Structures
1.
Amino acid sequence: MPRAESAIAAILACLTLGACAAAPAYAPPKVETPAAFKEIGPWTPAAPADAEPRGAWWSAYGDPILDDLEARAEKANATLAAAVAAHDQAGALAAQARAAFLPEITGAGTGARYHRSDNTPLRVGGPDDYSNIQLGASTSYELDLWGRVRAQARAARDQAQASDADLANVRLSLQAQLADAYLALRGLDAQSKLLVDTADAYDRALKLTTIRHDGGASSGLDVGRAQNQLSTAKAQISDVAAQRALYEHAIAVLVGEPASSFNLPPLATRLKPLTIPVTLPSALLQRRPDIAAAERRAAAANAQVGVAQAARFPALTLGGAAGWQSAGKVALLASPNTYWMIAPQLAGPIFDGGRRKAGVIAARAAFDQAAANYRGVVLGAFQNVEDQLALSNRLAEEAKDQTDAVDSAQRTETLALTRYRQGAASYLEVVTAQTATLQAQRAALSLETRRLQASVDLVRALGGGFSAESLKR
């Protein structure tokens, strides 16, 4: 049999024996999934999946300023920009890996003038001076006998999909951080308005006490207590202003602007917590971007096992070259100047001291690590949801009792002031009632803010508007 036919027969035999991929069959790591969340309640009812928040979920709060801030953060946040760059890099690496499915062709042209030495070894005739002009192309292509190229491309694709999920996770985290900070700032605005109104009331009470003191109906002790109440309220206004400034600075960074030039005017708006529908825990595996990222990394690690296994077998590479070569005396592109070459090469390890075997063991260990990380992320996600469900429902119950406490404190304060004006009570009774009222009102506002923030955290725990289906490509 001619040599060329023998080479082709050998190649076909190798293709027949090694046409399957080396990577193990992959399935997402198993994690026990509960049948339902146990903390479902009135503010977090069970509902079909199509009722869950998606897309611009923060718009459900109905605050145009928050909507504008979220849009600005999407365009200018530095952390998000870095995540986008990492995402683009992973996509380019995946495209680079897919390029290995096609042969690489390289073109080259050379022109050289030579003068041979009289003492050139093994010199037999020929001119002393000659030219060598060459124009051609060469190619190299590895036949993927053991699935190495396919496994590398699959691993790069899975890593790119993990980067997609990472980007979605960074975006969701940014959206939630911004909404959380904004709601906290508006909560402080409401606290500030309450304290300003309270200070005005205390100022009126101080004036009343001073008039009664001047008329001999009250003691200097009552005046001192009234002044203390007023000064304490003013001090609390300054404290709230300081806390608000910190949140305003944090929002500036989130939207990509210098804190020194960023300003959000005070606005004592009262937003309502969201009633967020919750689906089965199994749906969480498709709704959380961090879970999707961890699963895709496990898939990539599984593909890398195939790469490591394929490295233990011979690699068949087809090489070739063709073009024109001339000594410069005739036209370069003439038919007699053509040349070509085909050079298949089969090369494999004979002895490597166990290096490739160790590579397979390391790749399998890396998959086990990625699988364990995936299970940890899933369990952590279930905990996040249960935490926020419990918080949302318990805070709603607490808010009802706190509202009753505010109503009771206000009635007591009104009665105490009436008794004081009538001379039936001391101003200490008024101070005690005023303090209780202010504490109850501030606690109610704090609860309102915590409920709003809990609703944000629950949306984040449920994955926001993410869906793992967006990673398929």
Note: Confidence is low (pLDDT under 50) at residues 14-21.
2.
Amino acid sequence: MDIRLFEYALEIYKTKSFTKAASHLHIAQPSLSKQISKLEQELGVRLFDRKPGTVEATSDGLCFIQQAEKILQMREDLRRELLERKEGIRGELKIGSTAITGGHLLPPLFKIYKEHYPEVSIQLIEESTEQLIDLTAKGLIDLSILSLPIEDARLHTKAMLTEPLYLVLPKEEKPWMSEKVKQVIHSPEQLEQTTLSIEHVADCPFILLKKGYGFRHTVLELCARGRFKPLVAYETSNIETAQSFVKHGLGVTIVPEMVIHQSPQQQAFSYIQLTSHPTRTLVFTYSKERYLGMKAKALMDIYEKHHQSSISFTEH
């Protein structure tokens, strides 16, 4: 069976049209129809139902498409692996990360990587956690850096680091603050020794990341353990924007430790430890069913080698 037939069937399934599929494949439409008809005769089943204006896969067709995708993936993975064995570590590496992590963790890591592998072109893809999980599972991203939990069975994870979370408060007293929070605000000299229970901000307005971001889930879980649902005042896709809202007295937020170390406005907030000592764990994430290339493995190896050394990936 010619492997091109797998490509033909998959393109028809994606476009739901013989005409569009033929155009994308750069072959004549009658030729494509003839090839699929021969394939159906060879298999003894009908793969597609031709309907006015559309084409839909039959139940047998869906089974064929699922296996065809795997076979084509295996072919591509084999091609990539053999090319790497021949040419070494070079080409393009696609790394996924959310902005909250990528902006703080990746620059020093990429710097070291480029020193070792100058012929590798790194493409950084910043999206929401939800989007990154799907792109990584499909093999469209080589490696993503995400926080646990990762509940997609298509993915492998490898632990990177665990860091504490902090409550971020404005420097000045606001009407929405509880008495306990006001006491903390008025004792700046004791901030490093002060801890607050998450319940003390249960009635405060919260600034959260938008839906689809894993860190939003982390904060909501933290509030749930404190037996309250946060009053969401504003939502953003950027942790620095969330902190700016706090700076102007519009609410509170939660940030991971790495944000504190690199925040350009560090003196504009009060960072408070929480009594429950919450944390988040970052992991390398990659597809179980796709070939993990030498370029991606090299990045993980560099991180592991330097993580415990004098080079820090979370602070300058």
Note: The chain is about 45% helix and 25% strand.
3.
Amino acid sequence: MAKSTVDVTRADAVLIGGGVASATLAALLSELEPGWELEVLEKLDAVGQESSDGWNNAGTGHSALCELNYTPQDVDGSVSPAKAISINEQFQVSRQFWAHLVESGRIGDTSFIHPVPHMSFVHGLESTDYLRRRHDALVANPLFDRMRFTTSHEQLAEWAPLVSEGRPVTESIAATWSPDGTDVNFGQLTRNLFAFAETVGTTVRTGREVISLRRMGGEWGVMSRSSATGAVHVTRTPFVFVGAGGNALPLLQDSGIDEIRGFGGFPISGEWLRCTNEEIIARHDAKVYGRASVGAPPMSVPHLDTRFVDGRRSLMFGPYAGWSPKFLKTGRYTDLFASIKPGNIAQMVAVAPPNLDLMTYLAKELAATSGKRFAALTEYMPGAREEDWEPVTAGQRVQVIAPDPKKVGVLQFGTQLITAADGSIGGMLGASPGASTATTIMLDMMAAVFSDRIDAWRPRIARMIPSYGTSLSDDADAAHSSLERTASILGLSH
């Protein structure tokens, strides 16, 4: 009886996962090393379908213009702008790279990005005072200096009529508004980036689930299985990037690298309300972010959100937090339990007590009726009618549980880059603002894992991304020039 054989090929790099992180890395490497043969393995039948999908991803183009969780308030009432400035700087890097790809003809259109004003909205005297302090802390920075602040109901009605209508004029409110905000369809951007990479030397294989990562001498063996035929394939490569969203954690664990030891993940799911009334959709042109409830994860910060998906304008509110043990929307119910290993079980157990407020919040969200969820919408849109909205399942997020010598386990709301000491493998864990800042994250990873090449790449990177290695916040002329130039190329000018 003939023995079955396993097909073995070779690539210069293998990228696991067909989302925006892998797509960004493929595009960068295609520009810097056009002679390399890259292979992308995606278990679904198309790329950009999980966290990068237009309905699953927040789509905001996270630049900290409106996201209040990036500007924490200290006990003395002061507001720190540092994290917001850092995130905005990283988003400008993404904008510059996208503008380069469009200007050079690598990407044929700009329909993946739209200009949408970013707003923050709060009510109550305490929150109004916070938003004023936040505005004052940010507006001195050239990346935020077009942001406007108001406590006027009349001005709110001009910026966001749906938020203003039906609201008592005696209510204490405050809002900020920035014309520099965007809506980004990261699913479409992902497809555009891969389409360019494929013209240079990248092979994208969909319907290929990675089932094993093993050392093979000085290389990695990436074993994948075809969902169509069941055939098993092994790709040998000197470098692997794991950009598989929530599934990155178990894949990195399977690799056995020391750097992933102690890390765990906590999955959070959710839902949106999507407007079905075209007249209402047409009357709102903003992303309006509020303050999170006590214990709420950053991904659950409520927002009334103008979005463009599949060429159509839409209006969404949410997300409402939920919970599922799956690590992907299309994952398995055993994902969370399978990720618990001897090296991270202590962190997984220890992270619960300090996050009881999060557990309580999630329990309340899961128990909330549709009526209670709709009531949350009316806080931002007093005139909303329940018949104009439908529920839509949001994407799955896996928040990082990071090892810490003092706290044993720390639940992080953000993005974590993991790289092996020998530079042979890297991966990205976590959620927002990962998609918006993916270019910076990939550049940081490339500097770590391709230390022998990064110096030769720097001049080319600087031509694609003029602010590379500098801070726009330190140079007002450079910041304004970058905003204006990228807005012009990407079709964002109002």
Note: The two ends are 70 Å apart (CA to CA).
4.
Amino acid sequence: MTKAILIERTGGPEVLQWKETPVGDLGEGQVRVRQTAIGLNYIDTYQRSGLYPVPLPGGIGLEAAGVVDAVGPGVGNFKVGDRVAYAGGPAGSYAEQRVMPAAPLVKLPDNISDQQAAAMMLKGMTVQYLIRRTYPVKAGETVLFHAAAGGVGLIACQWLKALGATVIGTVSSEEKAALAQANGCTHTIVYRKENFANRVRELTGGAGVPVVYDSVGKDTWEDSLSCLQPMGLMVSFGNTSGPVAPVNIGQLAAKGSLFVTRPALATYTAKPQDLQATARDLFEILSGGHVKAKVSQTYALKDAAQAHYDLEGSKTVGSTILLP
């Protein structure tokens, strides 16, 4: 038996229950992981609310780090004692211990701690595919990144700066603006004080940007499109303010033959070689010191409900982990 956060129905943070549950038997291609740190991500709230369905009753969460303490049949690339991390399904990372497929796991280098890994695996690999594959950002380009002081945003600002890009970031407060700037964001826009589309046009001399990275969704959709250059790319990779309404595709032509994509990490890391390459790129940028994985908040795993209240209430900055 182990203890885990489980849900029996979807809803607000109050549906998260700290319960004892069976760990389960090892099957073909599976390992058992004793988890030491668990990543908190906005996608967890989507699983909890039902926006992204998960099996019920069951667990939520996609990211953690720990140690392999048992190996099932057919697993040749991991052994007991290996330090590992993951940032993908199946859901259920909010647990002290779990049995899961070996396929999503990556081995951790000695210079990456378990807490660092739990704080940045999902967010860091998300940044990797966004800025290296979805739209490969080049030195000298200016990009717009929403929620620049969030967990993904802070990693993105550092990485984009290392690439030689100019980053315009939106934030909700002056405090978060200072944090984003300290992590490589060139220009910050406090969206509660000024219209970010107008400011982006000012900062770019009316030209706009070639790409917008938007995890906010409904509230920023229209103005984000207005920030783009002709034939620019709108990368909508989240919806913290709610899902984007149905789109009139003709609007993309009217605003300059724009492109739109709704990417997901699971697609970009579906092939084992892509997962390992993505993680390797992340570990290299961390090892070089260009990106620092900082844990900004920690909560006990049993207090996951409070962590969700704080995350959805914009009371957190950067990366947050849950400790079993």
Note: DSSP finds ten helices and 16 strands in the chain.
